[in-house]
Structure prediction request, 219 residues.
Amino acid sequence: MGICSLPNIVPAAAGLICTATNHSTFTFMLNPLIHPTAVIDAGAQIGEGTRIWHFCHVMPKAVIGSDCNIGQNVFVDNNASVGNGVKIQNNVSVYNGVVLEDGVFVGPSAVFTNVINPRSFIERKTEYKKILVKKGATIGANATIVCGISIGEYALIGAGAVVTKDVPAYGLMMGNPARQKGWISEQGYTLQFDENDKAVCPGDAATYQLKDNMVHKIS
Prediction:
């Protein structure tokens, strides 16, 4: 293995040890692209094909999957998990206990919390509550996700929404506090259900069934 600096945006060979801007060393899992202004702490796991842009900070116990795009000024904390194919736009902090499954989209300046009752003068690091964002879900710009909840697969959280409770799969959430306004397809289209509680996505013609206030893709 060799030692290298990180000029501009460069691919790193598997197993290559590189020196980041904080002069720490770290091991690339495979072939991510790291901007030289990013700080990647020793021990961080970053998958093949992931791009990490200007002024990001990835902590030593963070895990980021393959083919992700991590925008400018993103912080990924210890014990945070980012799946494969995730897109995180600028100015997002993915705090301790946040799990983003494969294919999640996080819009610019979205907020995750991990303490329900923070005080500057009380240490509550043993009281972190998790947030689980399931496969394919979208979180809009400036949305706030209060800790201790899960967001279902392919749900869509509207811009500026404040989510305080669990969101069902395919749920469309808007407002402060966020309320469900309908259902959304995997392609991101609003679903209109007929008298048989079936809906067809205008994007890919997939069929969805609404039953017991839950939506399932059936074809």
